[in-house]
């Protein structure tokens, strides 16, 4: 085990989180060591820290599924990155990859090189939602003609914003988005052809009018029982609905302590598990290493808005960020924690 250590924010038992010292590991074959500047906090972090979900009792577990920072070292077989490169990445597996720590060792395939002048703060919003949107739209939902209406339900969510951008970039002309009114103008600027307030009593009628018929393809970015009920009123009988797992009770994406959650869905629905995207070999080899860097270099993908936590100790910053996410106090922005100064 390494004799060097660094600080990490981890779940050490159900309901308990703290800053701890963890070993600083060297990158192995196909791996990259990153000095972490920023990391995002997402609902999955709260499920792990508050309820021990997907941890299986293996503590401590470092949190943070996104990160941005600067490469410090590369392992054998990594010849397209070098020390000093700015990168962003998503963590797929163990604690050594997670973002809420001073140094992370990540798989090269989950890492995207950033333009030299790109904001590390903004870059921390990108990986998980970009991968989710791309994987869902072009793998899980399949393909259709550019004039086929596609509904993005809850498009104001950070994953929905990337979905709208990617569909517009791919040439789709009939992207219909539902969101609260404060997100409408922004979603139109990203490429949505029609935007509907999902709180309107006549939401279904407006969606059907925009589509000209029942909708064939739907991405539900909220993925709750209540949203599925709304979607069922506009989707065609042979349509495909992709829901971002887990699906929760009620109508909110963030689940409480006693909220039922499902990781499996009925046959007519497609359940999206973003962390499995690398089972598609093409996406594994190209999505983060090649596709995202090109989109960023050409400035045709916009990062999410940032809600930054950069004051106080690392413990204070991480804890405050977790509280905001678990209490559902986020809308259309990504919660980002400053981990270390570059």
Automatic annotation (TrEMBL):
InterPro entries assigned to the protein according to its UniProt record, in alphabetical order: ADH-like_C, ADH-like_N, ER, GroES-like_sf, NAD(P)-bd_dom_sf, Trans-enoyl_RdTase-like
Pfam families hit by this protein: ADH_N, ADH_zinc_N
Enoyl reductase (ER) domain mapped to chain residues: 15-337
SUPFAM superfamilies per UniProt: GroES-like (SSF50129), NAD(P)-binding Rossmann-fold domains (SSF51735)
Gene3D superfamilies: Medium-chain alcohol dehydrogenases, catalytic domain, NAD(P)-binding Rossmann-like Domain
One Gene Ontology term of the molecular function aspect: oxidoreductase activity, acting on NAD(P)H
Top-level taxon: Eukaryota
Protein name: Chaperonin 10-like protein
Taxonomic placement: Eukaryota, Fungi, Dikarya, Basidiomycota, Agaricomycotina
């Amino acid at each position: 085990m390494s004799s060097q250590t660094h600080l990490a924010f981890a779940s050490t038992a159900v309901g308990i989180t703290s800053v701890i010292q963890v070993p600083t590991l060297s990158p192995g074959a196909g791996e990259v060591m990153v000095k972490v500047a920023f990391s995002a906090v997402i609902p999955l972090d709260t499920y792990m820290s508050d309820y021990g979900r997907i941890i299986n009792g293996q503590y401590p577990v470092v949190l943070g599924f996104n990160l941005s920072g600067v490469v410090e070292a590369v392992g054998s077989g990594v010849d397209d990155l070098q020390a000093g490169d700015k990168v962003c990445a998503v963590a797929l597996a163990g604690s050594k990859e997670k973002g809420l720590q001073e140094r992370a060792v990540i798989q090269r395939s989950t890492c995207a090189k950033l333009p030299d002048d790109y904001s590390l703060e903004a870059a921390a919003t990108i990986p998980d939602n970009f991968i989710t949107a791309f994987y869902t739209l072009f793998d899980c939902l399949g393909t259709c003609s550019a004039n086929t209406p596609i509904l993005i339900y809850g498009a104001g969510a950070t994953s929905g914003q990337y979905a709208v951008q990617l569909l517009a970039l791919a040439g789709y002309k009939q992207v219909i988005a539902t969101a609260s009114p404060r997100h409408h103008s922004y979603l139109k600027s990203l490429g949505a052809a029609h935007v509907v307030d999902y709180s309107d009593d006549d939401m279904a009628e407006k969606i059907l009018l925009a589509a000209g018929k029942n909708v064939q393809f739907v991405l539900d970015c909220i993925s709750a029982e209540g949203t599925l009920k709304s979607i069922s009123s506009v989707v065609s009988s042979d349509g495909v609905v992709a829901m971002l797992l887990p699906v929760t009770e009620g109508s909110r994406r963030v689940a409480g302590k006693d909220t039922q959650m499902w990781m499996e869905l009925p046959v007519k629905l497609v359940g999206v598990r973003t962390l499995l995207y690398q089972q598609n070999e093409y996406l594994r080899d190209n999505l983060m290493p090649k596709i995202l860097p090109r989109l960023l270099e050409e400035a045709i993908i916009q990062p999410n808005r940032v809600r930054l936590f950069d004051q106080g100790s690392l413990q204070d910053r991480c804890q405050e960020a977790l509280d905001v996410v678990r209490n559902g106090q986020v809308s259309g922005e990504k919660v980002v924690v400053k981990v270390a100064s570059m």
